[in-house]
Amino acid sequence: METTGAEDAGLYSASLMKHLNLQRGRGQFCDCVLRQNSDQVYPVHRCVLAASSPVLASILSSTGALVELQDPCLSESVIVFLLDYIYTGILPSSLSQQQYH
């Protein structure tokens, strides 16, 4: 069965994001680091974060390679969930709505 151009594009996009996420996990080709509370660092690709959110694009356009996260509400688990969602489009199954209400 042949695939359509749209299906091919979807497969390509999914494959590309999968590889970017693997690179993020290894710290490969990451050009930015998010730092929370000066002890936890998260290597990321600026272009991926900027493309995912206008707010992140604005923050990244006015900072260097190190982005300091100063919000005390941003726990390590929230940052990890957010980055995983940005790179995969999937919310972790352990994410509970009760955590944030």
What are the defining features of this structure?
101 residues, alpha+beta, Potassium Channel Kv1.1, Chain A, three-stranded mixed beta sheet, 4 helices, 3 strands, elongated, ZnFinger_BTB_dom_contain, Chromosome 11 open reading frame 82, SKP1/BTB/POZ_sf, BTB/POZ_dom
Task: Indicate the CATH topology.
Answer: Potassium Channel Kv1.1, Chain A
What is the gyration radius calculated from CA atoms?
A: 15 Å
Contiguous uncertain segments of 5+ residues:
none
* SS element count, helices: 4
Name of the CATH first level: Alpha Beta
The total number of structural domains is 1
Beta content comes to 5-15%
Instruction: Specify the CATH homologous superfamily.
Output: Potassium Channel Kv1.1, Chain A
Q: How many strand segments? A: 3
- Strand order within the widest sheet? 2-1-3
**Helix coverage percent:** 40-55%
Order of helices and strands: HEEHHEH
- Specify the CATH architecture: 2-Layer Sandwich
**Mean pLDDT over the residues:** 88
Domain BTB: 30-95
Protein name: Chromosome 11 open reading frame 82
GO molecular function: DNA-binding transcription factor activity, RNA polymerase II-specific; RNA polymerase II cis-regulatory region sequence-specific DNA binding
Pfam families: BTB
